[in-house]
Amino acid sequence: MNTHRALVVCAALICLVPARADEPAAPAPREPGPDEAVVFEDVTFGGASLLLKVGDELPNLTKTPEGNWDQRISSLKVGADAIVVLYSWFDFGNVCLGLPGTGTGGSGRFADLSRIKPKNLRFHLGDRARSLRVVAKGADISKLCR
């Protein structure tokens, strides 16, 4: 039997098709540059991703350059010179949460936003963000939160 051919096993309407040996591996999750951030639809940096840059403002996550990201952000990576500010409502309203990159003393890696609940919030923002900003490190987050 040729080992390069995929073996297809179908039982009870479920088909398993293993990857071929000559197929490329799945791409590694995106890494942000110093002034960038990457948001992911799944925890631990999985699923679809969206690359953002310092200065990007998305007042309505249903309308991004790459489609609807409303209430889909589960994890994110933040570059050294950036801070991501997530908001629980459209147009940068209601509750906000600033997530710093490595250059601001943070880890820059937030694998599961549902596990981050600051003391002043009643709930987490995992899969709840409706708008966001990416600002440069040193920005006064208190002025960005209403």
Account of the protein in words:
This protein has 146 residues and is mainly beta. 3% of the residues lie in helices and 35% in strands. The chain has one helix and ten strands. The protein has one helix at residues 141-144; strands spanning 9-11, 14-16, 36-42, 46-53, 57-58, 75-78, 82-89, 93-100, 109-110, 131-136. The chain has a four-stranded antiparallel beta sheet with strand order 4-3-6-9, with no helix packed on it. A four-stranded antiparallel beta sheet has the order 5-10-7-8, with no helix packed on it. A two-stranded antiparallel ribbon has the order 1-2.
Q: Strand portion, in percent?
A: 25-35%
**Range of helix content:** under 10%
Quick one: overall form? globular
Structural class: mainly beta
How far apart the termini lie comes to: 66 Å
SSE pattern: EEEEEEEEEEH
How are the strands of the largest sheet arranged? Answer: 4-3-6-9
| Low-pLDDT ranges | 1-17
User: Compute the gyration radius: what is it?
Assistant: 19 Å
- Average of per-residue pLDDT values: 83
Helices, by number, come to 1
Q: What is the β-strand count?
A: 10
Largest sheet: 4 strands, antiparallel
Give the topology:
Layout: E1 9-11, E2 14-16, E3 36-42, E4 46-53, E5 57-58, E6 75-78, E7 82-89, E8 93-100, E9 109-110, E10 131-136, H1 141-144
Antiparallel strand pairs: 1-2, 3-4, 3-6, 5-10, 6-9, 7-8, 7-10
